[in-house]
Design goal:
The complex is a heterodimer of chains A (311) and B (327). Chain A is mainly alpha-helical. Chain A is built from 14 helices and 2 strands; from the N terminus they run H-H-H-H-H-H-H-E-E-H-H-H-H-H-H-H. Chain B has a domain at 55-257. A two-stranded antiparallel sheet of chain B has the order 1-2. The chains are: A mainly alpha (311), B mainly alpha (327).
Chain lengths: 311, 327
């Protein structure tokens, strides 16, 4: 029990912070209640998937700057497919597309030996272009069954939150307990050592990027579910996901951290936006404050990493 | 670089690569002329003095923005906020001129660039955030600030200072007036990189930062100065660009970001630091502008153009990695 507590100390601390922030929100706006929670859960949906995608590649010791663009590709793919077929095959194909895009990113990194940050920067533009080729302007359609999934409540939990938790942990939970999961952590904490102890480092990395792509596909699908259309221009998910990952206790550089922390981190960052909106702050100013908080979080993460390296 | 200096017979790719690495500008100029030739074949009669002046006019802001990327890449960084800073500077100068007059508006615009550079410098030099993430974040914040600023000046209208229009759109003979800014600028950057301590230390940091620190250099001072300079250059570019476009908008120079990185990479600047030249980036900017004309002639959609730019960056970088690994 104490071991479980200690290994999740960071996530528990964040959860407490989240509760405090929720309480503060209630103080600022006494009418903030179930409706507020439901819309918060819905607004956090794409951010949560983007963060899950980023967390996997950060744990393996890389970074994926093309997260937002891949989500855009998946969102337009799903929206276009749903004009032609039922939602089940459309979702399945979209997930496969995401998986394939991630695998392409990973393979390019492994084969070309160009650092991940450069490859994914280049791929950011490639995927952005692909999304624009698939759909020149926002359009397409979403099935009623899908858009209904993220509205309202399922028992005591907002449906959007439930859907997100199921999707994220249905992939992450078995993965982190498998051999592949162990390889991902090993590669992230020390690639050389992992290689010497028999981990197929290259294959592990490709797999991690493929899973990142899979989460991006879920993120793209969630965008379609929320808006009902496909949007080819990527949203502001890159910076937000890096910030949430760092806030969630995953070390930039790899090998440490889990999935629970980053997901709670997403909600902490989102609730701050809700609070600012409720306080009547200009939405554009909110963007500035949010951006500053994200930069501050990433800078703080940098300081912590520096100190960790010295000791 | 001939066969006699190497014991084994290197492959053709390797030999070409070595030549490229040692003299990146010469093959690049060849490539530029080849592209111009192809363009002439595609649309006979397109090449004229007027066309050349126009190409130069649009390559100049790109080449200036590429300077930000070359300088930061030499240390192993990158400046993704450069295009946003240029947009901010251009927008601010156009909207503030009717309110406060030209000199103050220009100084505000340049000051904004320096501010962003300062924040970038603090993040990169002290907090050790990866420059890519840091500059991405500051770019985001700067965009937000610009949107807030826009709400206060929405009623005042805009006026672009006459001298910027003269620089941006005027011609002397067939040559665009922006060369009056660009030639001294390029000479300064080239001299800075080749003959000053600052320039040499940039290369040193990029090659091996630990060694540079151990040999007694305070790298934070240098990184600070570097990102300040980069912000200043970006703001300067924005001033020039708004004179060329003559219509300030909230995404004025943002489309120049990717081409500016591509120009630096094509010009032989290594994205990992320690290697590169500004002369190459200038030719790279010209190549990209000519290629842009070609893609427009081929009527490729915007999506395809982005894909091609992205793949070019990837391909060139991969080639550089291969060459340096096989050395």
């Amino acid at each position: 029990m104490t071991r479980v507590l200690r290994s999740n100390l960071w996530a528990i601390g964040l959860a407490v912070l989240l509760l405090v922030l929720l309480g503060l929100t209630k103080l600022i706006q006494p009418s903030f209640g179930f409706n507020g929670l439901e819309s918060l859960a819905r607004a956090s949906l794409p951010f949560a998937f983007a963060t899950a995608a980023m967390a996997v590649v950060v744990i393996v010791g890389g970074i994926d700057l093309s997260v937002g663009s891949m989500m855009a590709v998946c969102s337009v793919t799903a929206a276009v497919l749903m004009t032609m077929m039922g939602w089940v095959p459309a979702v399945a194909i979209t997930l496969l597309v995401g998986l394939a895009m991630g695998a392409i990113n990973g393979s390019l990194i492994v084969v070309t030996r160009v650092p991940d940050i450069v490859v994914t920067l280049a791929m950011l533009f490639v995927w952005e272009g692909v999304a624009l080729l698939i759909l020149g302007s926002p359009g397409g359609t979403a099935d009623r069954a899908l858009t209904g999934m993220v509205r309202g409540w399922t028992g005591p939990v907002p449906s959007a939150l439930l859907l997100m938790l199921i999707c994220v942990f249905a992939v992450w939970w078995p993965l982190s307990r498998s051999k592949l999961g162990l390889s991902i952590y090993a590669t992230g904490s020390d690639e050389e050592a992992a290689f010497r102890s028999g981990v197929a480092v290259g294959r592990t990395r490709v797999a991690a990027y493929a899973i990142c792509g899979l989460y991006c596909a879920m993120g793209g699908l969630s965008l379609v579910m929320l808006t009902g259309i496909g949007e080819p221009v990527p949203g502001p998910y890159l910076m937000a996901s890096v910030a949430a990952v760092v806030l969630g206790g995953v070390v930039l550089g790899g090998g440490r951290g889990g999935m629970l922390g980053p997901i709670i981190g997403v909600f902490v960052l989102r609730i701050i936006r809700t609070m600012l909106t409720l306080m009547g702050v200009d939405p554009n100013v909110t963007t500035i404050v949010e951006g500053s908080i994200m930069v501050a979080v990433v800078m703080l993460g940098g300081f912590i990493m520096l100190r960790g390296r010295k000791t | 670089m001939s066969d006699a200096t190497t014991p084994e017979t290197p492959s053709l790719l390797l030999r070409i690569g070595r030549f490229l690495r040692d003299n990146p500008v010469i093959p690049l100029i060849g490539l530029l002329f080849a592209l111009i030739g192809i363009l002439e074949l595609m649309r006979p009669g397109i090449i004229s003095p007027f066309w050349m002046g126009n190409t130069m006019r649009f390559a100049i802001p790109l080449a200036m923005l590429a300077a930000c990327q070359v300088l930061t890449m030499l240390t192993g960084g990158i400046d993704l906020s450069a295009a946003v800073v240029a947009t901010v500077a251009g927008f601010v100068v156009a909207t503030a001129t009717p309110l406060v007059g030209v000199p103050l508006a220009v100084s505000i615009a340049l000051g904004a660039g320096l501010m962003v550079g300062l924040v970038n410098g603090i993040g990169v030099a002290f907090a050790r955030v990866h420059p890519l993430i840091m500059t991405l974040g500051t770019g985001l914040i700067a965009t937000g600030c610009l949107q807030v600023y826009q709400r206060y000046v929405i009623a005042t209208g805009s006026e672009i200072p006459a001298f910027l229009v003269w620089l941006g759109t005027g011609r002397t003979g067939i040559l665009p007036n922006s060369l009056y800014v660009f030639i001294p600028f390029a000479v300064l950057i080239l001299l800075l990189l080749r003959y000053t301590g600052f320039g040499r230390v940039l290369f040193a940091i990029g090659s091996n930062e630990n060694a540079t620190r151990l040999s007694g250099l305070r790298s934070w001072q240098l990184l600070m100065a570097l990102y300040l300079l980069s912000g200043f250059i970006a703001a300067l570019t924005g001033l020039l660009y708004v004179g060329i476009i003559r219509a300030p908008s909230l995404s004025l120079a943002n489309p120049l970001l990717l081409p500016s990185v591509a120009a630096a990479v094509i010009g032989g600047t290594s994205i990992f630091g320690g290697r590169g030249s500004y002369a190459g980036a200038i030719v790279g900017a010209l190549i990209l502008t000519v290629m842009g004309t070609m893609l427009t002639l081929m009527q490729l959609p915007e999506g395809a153009r982005r894909i091609i730019f992205g793949l070019i960056i990837l391909l060139v970088t991969a080639l550089f990695v291969r060459i340096t690994n096989q050395r």
